[in-house]
Amino acid sequence: MITRFKKSRKRKELFKAIFLSALFIVLIFGTIAYLIVSNLNIRQKRAELITQIEETQKEIDNLEQKNQELETGINKTEREDYQREKLYEQGYVEKGEHQVIVLPREENKETEKEKQKNIWQKFWGKLGF
């Protein structure tokens, strides 16, 4: 009976050792799998962030260029010659100068007359009557 107990005990210890070894191996492989999946998620997130950085950089460049154009426009409008030119175009003149009136071109009058003609007048006009 003692021999049976020893054999039974050895089998239990062997089973326990195999079970603990298998459990340890499963935990190690589970940890490795978790780290691999985490690494892949981090790579994907990094790629998205890099794309976002590039888009933001392009937007910054466009805004800087627009800012430069606006500063150039502001500098242009601050010049006295530009201000005088705009005032002259709007009809304002300085003291002692004569006001100039700009009339519309004659082409505009002709197009207005043609618009006023009805369909038959245009038709007969094309035929030469």
Offer a concise description of the structure.
This protein is 83% helix and 0% strand. With 129 residues, the chain is mainly alpha-helical. The radius of gyration is 45 Å and the shape is elongated.
Q: How does this model look, in words?
A:
By secondary structure, the protein is mainly alpha-helical. The protein has a domain at 1-88. It is 83% helix and 0% strand. It contains four helices and no strands. It has helices spanning 2-78, 80-89, 106-116, 119-127.
SSE order and pairing:
Layout lengths: L1 H77 L1 H10 L16 H11 L2 H9 L2
List its salient traits.
129 residues, mainly alpha, elongated
Report the count of strand segments: 0
Helical content stands at over 70%
Distance between the termini: 137 Å
Number of continuous helical runs: 4
Q: Could you describe the largest sheet, including whether it forms a barrel?
A: none
